[in-house]
Amino acid sequence: MTPRPVLEFWFDFGSNYSYLAAMRIDRLAARAGVQVAWKPFLLGPVFRALGWPSSPSVVQREKGRYVWRDMEREAARLGLPFRRPSQFPRAALLAHRVAVAADGQPWLPEFCQALFLRNFAADQDIEDMEAVSEVLSAVGQHSGVWIERAQQEDVKLRLRRQTEEAQARGIFGAPTFFVADEMFWGNDRLEQALAWATGEAGRPER
């Protein structure tokens, strides 16, 4: 059997455009016959390495105004619920560690989507242990088991290394998609990345 092409989905739970991508990537990938590798990482260290103290949407007020209006339009266009978070960006270190610990688990996409909805549709906290526990329970998992697993040193190290890998590969924002070494940035590049993965996209000569 020919292996399915793989699309890497690099995301941060605090990223608004990652929310839009997370809510539709599995459906579109399944239709295209592409396997998705969910890759949580921390945008904060990436931004600081680039000289930004926070998200560019926060640092640049004009860009921030545009982004939230764009989010309203895009969420409506995609049929997704949206409420501008009262806190942005929201930290979600424990949630990221759970997502790293759950790499390969069939419920990982559902867990991630539930967290994104909590942040960008319900305007609720996603950082503290109670919030993460509620989401784990909502997707049918034993929250205590996974939170304990997420706090082990090997998981913390894996998230740190995954964030370092994101920097090393040139990631500067989220969501970012990779097909092998070909990079696509932004929710509006998801379809193009999938087409590239299946070989349907026109590829320029190099």
UniProtKB/TrEMBL annotation:
Top EC category: isomerase
Record protein name field: 2-hydroxychromene-2-carboxylate isomerase
Catalysis performed (reactions): 2-hydroxychromene-2-carboxylate = (3E)-4-(2-hydroxyphenyl)-2-oxobut-3-enoate
Keyword check for RNA-binding: no
Record flagged with keyword Isomerase: yes
Pfam families: DSBA
Keyword annotations: Isomerase
EC number of the protein: 5.99.1.4
Entry similarity comment: Belongs to the GST superfamily. NadH family.
GO biological process terms on file: glutathione metabolic process; naphthalene catabolic process
Originating organism: Caldimonas thermodepolymerans
Top-level taxon in the UniProt lineage: Bacteria
One Gene Ontology term of the molecular function aspect: glutathione peroxidase activity
